[in-house]
Design goal:
Blueprint (H helix, E strand, L loop, with lengths): L4 H13 L2 H8 L3 H15 L4 E4 L2 E4 L1 H29 L2 E8 L1 H18 L2 E8 L2 H9 L5 E5 L9 E10 L1 E5 L12 H4 L4 E3 L3 H5 L6 E3 L3 H10 L3 E4 L5 H5 L3 E3 L10 E9 L6 H17 L5
Parallel strand pairs: 3-4, 3-5, 8-9, 8-10
Antiparallel strand pairs: 1-2, 5-12, 6-12, 7-10, 7-11
Length: 297
């Protein structure tokens, strides 16, 4: 298919002006050049677009049908050109991303609000799952990128991971918890209490076979922590109000491998390129994490 957009734009100008000379003046070309251009179109497709007369030109019956389609084509071309510029600036398009439950609970509300306000032509589709499931979806190209704690991806092939920020991690309990007033607790001290987490508990608290509750909804986990003697593995930055009010406390562990500060990475397929809209999103996440935990990267 070899549609000459320039020639069809010229033909539409002739039809609108009703004159080759006026159309040529508007198009900033000579009248003979315009006449040859229209004649080339007519010869190429074997149709007569215009009837020429001493008083000007008129569109033929078949010419009207063809030019109606040409007008639709040019409108689509203009829309595509406009959208291409938006895509290139990251101001339009679709981004399908994944986040681990804790990161989603902390970042998605402000992130989505910011993008809806500043990038209204971007369609954001967010998926909240464990890092393992997000990894599978990334390889299947169901998502373009995802964010998770970097330690959850150790040794996995075919991906690249870049640190975009840090989050604190702690074991949180309610103020009335039996361990809340202790200066320091051990692993044995927390073992009798049920554990709460948004991911596999044994990975977070090194408690194989221990009881607890795994849930992606961090609002539910917060409420359970406030209402029970469960121990919640989470980020204090998710509940700053409850901690400031003394409703929740972070336990100080003497013998736990739990990291107090966890690097958060953006993960994509090795060798793949992110869309401009996705790159803009990554930068927004980086800025959010810097505001939450201003650690030098």
């Amino acid at each position: 298919m070899d549609l000459d957009i320039k020639r069809w734009r010229q033909a539409l100008t002739v039809a609108r002006c009703g004159s080759f000379s006026q159309a040529a003046e508007e198009l900033h070309i000579t009248q003979p050049a315009l006449s040859r251009s229209i004649a080339t179109l007519e010869e190429r497709y074997g149709i007569r677009l215009f009837d020429r007369g001493h008083t000007g030109v008129s569109v033929t019956a078949v010419g009207r049908q063809v030019l109606d389609q040409a007008e639709t084509l040019l409108q689509s071309a203009r829309a595509m050109e406009h959208n291409l510029h938006l895509f290139g600036r990251g101001s339009a398009g679709r981004v399908t991303l994944g986040m681990g439950p804790m990161i989603a609970a902390l970042l998605l509300p402000d992130l989505s609000r910011q993008l809806l306000q500043t990038q209204p032509n971007v369609l954001l589709h967010a998926v909240t799952k464990s890092a393992t499931l997000l990894y599978e979806e990334l390889l299947e190209e169901s998502i373009e990128l995802f964010f998770c704690a970097e330690g959850q991806l150790s040794g996995l092939p075919a991906i690249s991971c870049e640190t975009v920020g840090y989050l604190d991690l702690a074991l949180l309990v309610r103020a009335q918890h039996p361990l809340a007033d202790r200066d320091e607790v051990s692993h044995d001290d927390i073992a009798p209490f049920p554990a709460l987490s948004g991911t596999e508990i044994s990975r977070i608290m090194d408690r194989p076979g221990a009881g607890g509750f795994i849930c992606d909804n961090y609002h539910i986990l917060r409420d359970l922590t406030l209402d029970t003697d469960a121990v919640w593995a989470s980020s204090p930055q998710l509940v700053p109000g409850e901690i400031a009010a003394g409703q929740l406390k972070a336990l100080k562990l003497s013998d736990s491998p739990l990291q107090s500060m966890v690097p958060i990475g953006v993960v994509q397929r090795t060798g793949g390129s992110l869309s401009p809209a996705a790159e803009h999103l990554v930068e927004e996440v980086r800025q959010q994490l810097t505001r939450i935990n201003p650690v030098a990267l």
